[in-house]
Every structure is written in structure tokens, then in C-alpha cells.
Amino acid sequence: MSSQSTATLEPPATLAEARCFHCGEPCPDDSLALGEKLFCCLGCQTVFSLLQENGLERFYELNAAPGIRIRAASAAIKWAFLDDPAVQEKLFDFADKTQARVTLHLPAIHCVACVWLLENLFKLHPGVGRSVVNFSRREAAIAFAPDKIKFSELAALLASIGYEPQFTFGETDQAKPVLWRQKSWLQIGLAGFAFGNIMIMSLPFYLGLDSFNGPWFKAFAGWLALALALPVVTYSAADFWRAAWASVRQRMLTMEVPIVLGLTAIYGSSIFDVFWQRGPGYCDSLCGLIFFLLCGRLFQKKTYDRLTFDRDYKGFFPLSVVRKNSGGEESVAISRLQTGDHLILRNGELVPADAKLISGDACMDYSFVTGESEPVKCAPGERLYAGGRQVGGAIEIETVKPVAQSYLAALWNNEAFHKPGNYELDSLTNRYSKRFTKLVIGVALAAAVFWFFHDAAKALKAFTSVLIVACPCALALAAPLTHGTAQRLLARLNIFLKNALVIERMAEVDTIVLDKTGTLTTADAGGVCFQKAVSGKRKAETELSSDEAKWISSLARLSTHPNSVRIAKALGAAALPARGFKEIPGGGIEGEVAGHKILLGSRAWVESQIESGKRKAESGNQPEPPLVGANVWVAMDGVLHGAFVLENTLRPEVEKLIAQLGGRFDLALLSGDNEREAARFKKIFGVTAVLRFNQSPADKLNFIRELQARGRKVMMVGDGLNDAGALKQAEVGVAVVEKIGVFSPASDVILDAAQVPKLAQVLDFSRRAARVVRAGFVISAFYNIAGVSIAAAGLLAPIVCAILMPASSVSVVVFACVVTLWMAHRVGLRAEPQNSSEPFAEK
Amino acid sequence: MNVIILLILASLAVALIFLAGFIWAVRSGQYEDTLTPALRVLTEESKISESKTKPK
Predict the structure, then answer these.
(1) What is the ipTM of this complex?
(2) How far is A736 from A740, CA to CA, in rounded Å?
(3) Residue-range definition of the domain harbouring residue B28
């Protein structure tokens, strides 16, 4: 690195503003510059030059500093497994000799400029064809010529400009999801089309204009309406028929049964009326009914493209690992791993199967798997468990178990993962519809019997009329609309529900089980305190001098490692120029600030660095850290200076949350961590709550099961794979994630960590939403009573039906939406402007 | 009054054309992604600015 100025102390004001032109992160110094444009690292500069050479500078005009900093250059071997025909077959949408098309998940897509750059990818390589980005899914469909650019080269090209494709193990094992959405759009479109056209033809009858058209017009319009309604009944309503049939076979009276009963009655009596020229039939009401029902269903089936709620452990693993063979290293798909394979793991990579350490300094971070918050050092020969993440240099391991039988996978063999959740059958709507269906059939039969003895001709009409009017359109809409509105509202707060029914289950929760590490506590925002090294010369003090703080902060802010970020934040902003900044993965960072050479990193690394410099006799005088948490050691000018202790602290407002929840729910805390913090949590949770430490994933699952055996409705709030069993077993599983879109275990709710304090309000809101649904039922019952009494009297005219049905549906829809929004307002849930799916948002 | 039948059939024919258009739109995937096209519009002028900058 060339240094252009030799002065050690430059005015910090100008350099404080020095931000990378490519990625917008602060530049360590001004050594990397092209013209007036500064760059933070060589990677950013390379990408800029590449884009400039290919006429893609517009990337920088579309958004300020839109680039993604290349953290570590990825080795070409990383992508080699993509040239395996078996892997390609699973990933490609289409392939022949000259062309292939693949849809890649690129999580780095974040703004307009990304879309533009990726759709202009063909300018970077002649082998790349058309590419189309789907922003909301963070996907790009790319066509390329395999004879000009190999798939592995395409992946490497994307990675080199910052859009590293993400492949997950689970993805290649299953077929791509069917596009059910296309079908539902077609069903709705068809129903809407028929509804509108039949309504227009029915108007002359309703307005009494049929008198001068003669009976042939009546017949013509009637048959035309029947013809138009036929595809609606058979195609658009196909799902209702199927669901009704399934529920009858299971001897359940779900909502679909009265709907289908109504459809049959309406279409049947319409055919009858038209055939015997008694009237125009009820086809307009029929199509309108199906149209509204389908709209309600689509509204309820809101899905989040970026989120997956059903991931198992496979989704957590990468698609391939580096295997050592006789000739060197090769990249191999995880599904092909065998016991006894020797693998190379680099910093940040996962152990894919239970294994034995062969060589290297292994430091395993099991926090996501077990909840243990501190990494564990391992010696060669020691057992490493699947799911652990290596922190530090490269290690070599030998697998001892197949992937599917390893520690992590074993949890998934538990029966909790095999029984399908039959919650849908037990929804509010279905409970209500059981009674409703019986009542309607009873009333219809009673009316038929009554008329049979008084006016036999009217008996059949009265019977069908009751079924027609009682068709539970409004009833079926109350829940979807309320839930759908609630679901969308929560999504704006970064609280994502797997489906709309979750809110109903949430309303019934009476016990809340919380995980500790990562859920209530966070490693990101905790306190930082400094402990000075105690040596003969210096007296023990726990404060850094303000100059020292500035120097360390200036260095720490250059690294993106979470510990550096925390230290820089705790020490306050300072932006003195740092020279020779270097980041050693698994070790620490080093650099020269204001003439002082500063080392910041793990104890082992800092010590080894000092010793290689000049041996100091002070090594015996390290302070013993009295507090828990990761320690970051500092050395200045070759002298060990002290250590930062980073505490695992409670998330803000957690104490308030527990206090709020404590009054209304039974609380329990389960932690995979040891008991050192028991006293602290006892104080927060109070004496009645159950606190358990050293819990294995199976313990957590069993705890939930015990509660359920006692009739409790449990909500589990957790974050790691160690909570996966409990999340699955609980009535409502809430996965807490630091960043939306990253891996989270199978759950019903994905909750942004920042929203954890809002949990009490969300639960309150869900109870109110359930009340809104019930109120919707009451409204529709009111309409039904009015309609059924007309119908039972044998007076139902098509026009009454045509007005009553849409009116009841629309009023329920409006009621459900408006009242749900108002409830959210009263509970105090208000969407903040921050939204991660906003395409113009800052990174 | 036979003309009303002609009129109804004509209007139905027009409506069917729109229905066909809708089915085509759904089939061709236009309902799959409703966000990205809105972003693409913002970057569309690239063709103009490219042709302007090329002679330089």
C-alpha cells in the first residue's frame, strides 16, 4: 500500500467524510483512489474498474454507493461443484447444448442499481444472455451459453461483483414449488368476468324491462348465463369442491361443505328455472359469490417471497464442502458426503456432519445449535458436532457419521416433525361452520316439511331457497379478511406470519416459553467495559485515556466484525487515519494510528503477535476477566494493554416486556446456556416462572410437550436450531432473527429481533382480531336470519338474492378491514417507516 | 327486437377478447412479480444516455 502523506496526525474532519465510492463504507486512508473517487479496499476498486471498462458506470448514478463490499475473495474451488451434471440438473430451469437458464438466489440485491446491473450482466461476459431480476424474491433468472461460460464461472463472476449466489442443501433435494398463484388469478379472473357479464344480462329482469322482450329473450339470457357460469362452477370453484369432498370423507363439517351445498342448490335451481322458463336463475349471485370467496382466499394467502417458514436443518447447511482427496482439494455436494471423508473448513464455515478434528486450531461456535454463547476450543481427535461454525483458521476434519444421522439431524427424527399440524380444521371458522351447517339444513328441511303440508308446490322452492340464501359467503369472508389485514399490518412491523391462521392460534396462547441466548439477550448491543493490564509499572485502572480510546476506535471502525463494531460504538466516534490496516480472520485486526501500532483481537492471536515482535516479560500479568462474554484484547506498540469485555446483555425493554406478559401469561425460560446468569433472570421473571438452564434441544421439546399435556396453549419464542423442536411442537413457534431473510428454523412467525419488545402488543392485538372475526360472524348471521326468513316463507326472488348476497359480503369485508386497523391503532402497533423490502432503502 | 341478441353477442365477443388477454397476461408471468417492473422503469433511460455518450 502506497502512503501518500507521511504526517501522522492529519485533520480528522476531512477524512471523517472519506467514504468508499463503491460501497459507502469508511475508507481507512486515501491510498486507494481513482481520480477523486476513494475506495475502502482493493476489492471495491476492482469492481469499479471492471464496471467502468464495460460501460456500466450508470450503476453509481442510480443510487449513491450501491456496491457491496467484497468481504473475502472466494476461491474458485468454492464453485467447482456447480459443474457436476447432477447438481446442474437440479438447479437449472432449462438446459441444452448451447443455452441454459438458471434462477439464482442473490441475497445481496438491495436497490434499483442492483436490478439494473444484474440485468446488464451480459455486458460483462459474452457468454451471458438475458437476465431478469425478481426484486421481492432476491432472485435473478439468467440465461447463459455453457460452452462459453461454465456455470461455476458464472457463479464466480456474480460473486466477484458482490452478488454471491446462495445455494442451500434443501433446495436441490426438492422440486420447485408449483405456481399456485397463476391458477388462483385465472380462477378469480374467470369468476369476475362471468359475474359482470351475467349481471348485465340480468338487469333487464330486475328493472322489469323483460315485458317487451318476450319469453324467447328470457330463455336466451337464461341459457347464456348458465353457459357462462359453468366454467366458474367447475374451474373457479374447483378447490371448494375438492375441500368439501375431503372434509366429508373425514366426517368433518368444514366451511366448504355449506358453501358447496349452496353452490349446488343455486346452480341446480337455476337450471330448473331456466329449463321450465320460470325465471332467469341465480347465476349472477352464484358467480359473484365465488368471485368474493376467491378474493378473500387470495387476500388471506399472502406469502412472503423472501422468507421460508418450513426450513429444516438442511437449509442451514451450504450446498457443498471442500473435500481433500489424493490429488488435492475438490468441491463436493453435501448430499454425496460419505463417512470417513476428509474435509477442509475455513473461517465461518459449518461442520456438515459429526466429525473428528484431524488438524488445525478448531474453535467451534455452537451458539446457533445449542444456545451456548461462547465458542469452544477443540483439540485434535476431539468430536465436532454438525452445525458448529469454525472461527479462526482452516481446519481439517474427518466425518464420522452421515449428514442425515448427525447430531442436528437427529432432532428432526422426533415425531414432532412428522405429524402434520391439523390446526386449519380447528379454526374459528370451522368450529362455527359445524353448527351453522347443521342449523341451515335443519331450517331448510323444516321449511320444506311445513310447505309440503300447506302448499306442496312451494316445498322444493322453499328448501332450495334456504340453502341458497344461507350460503355462508359473508361468514367465510370474515376470518380471511381480518387475518389478512392483521398479517399485512404486522409484516410492515417486520413480524411475519406463516399464514393467516397463526393469528387465531396466537389469540389462544396462555403460556409463553422463552429462549435466552439470542432471544432475550443479544451479543450486539451489550455493554463494553475495558480492563487494563496490570503490570509493575502501571497502576490498575479501568479507564482508557481519551487519546487511547480515539486511536482504538479509529482502528475498530474499519472492521465489520461485530465485536469491532461494538467497541467502536462504545468508545465513541473517531476517525483518525489508520495505516496498514489488516484483518486476520479468526485473529483480529491491526493497524497504525497516530504513530502507534495497535493490535485488537483474540488473546491467543494478540499474544502471538507481541511475542513475534519483541518478547515482553509482561505476559504473566494478564488481567483475569471477571465478567462473562467475549474478550477482545488490545496491544499497543507491542505491549499488552488490556482487554475489552463484551457483555451479553438483555435486549432493550425486555424487562418491561416480561413485566407486561407476566400478569397475563405463565412464563418460562429455557436456556442451553449454563446457570451463571440464573439469579439475574430470577429477578426479572419473578418467583413463579420456571427457569431451566443447560437444556438440550430434546429437553426443550419435552418441556413444551409436558405443558401441552396439561392443556396449555404454548407459544415458544426462540432463535437457534436448538429451539427447532420446541418451535415446531408449540402451538405458535416464533423465530427471532437479527436480519430478515437469513436462515431461521421452521416456525409459524418470523420476528425481527428489534421487535421482540412489541410481543405483548402483538398478543393483545391477536386477541382483539379474534374478537373482530366473531363480530363478523354476528353480522353475517344477521343477514342470514333476514334472508332465511324470506326464503323459508317461499318468497325469494332472484333480485333479493342479487342484492342481499353482495351487500352482506361487502359489509363484512369493510367491517373486518376497518375494525382490524382500528384495533391495531388502539393497541399501539404502528408501522414505522423502516422497511427492509424498500428498494430505495440504505443498506 | 332481435337486434338485442346481436348486441349481446357482440359485447360478449369483446369481453371474451379481454378475458383472453387476461389469461395470456397471467400465463406469461406478469402477475408473478409486481415490484421489479416498477423499478426497471426508473432505469430505462439508459438507452438514451448510452447513445448520447457513445459519440464522445
Answers:
(1) 0.82
(2) 9
(3) 3-53
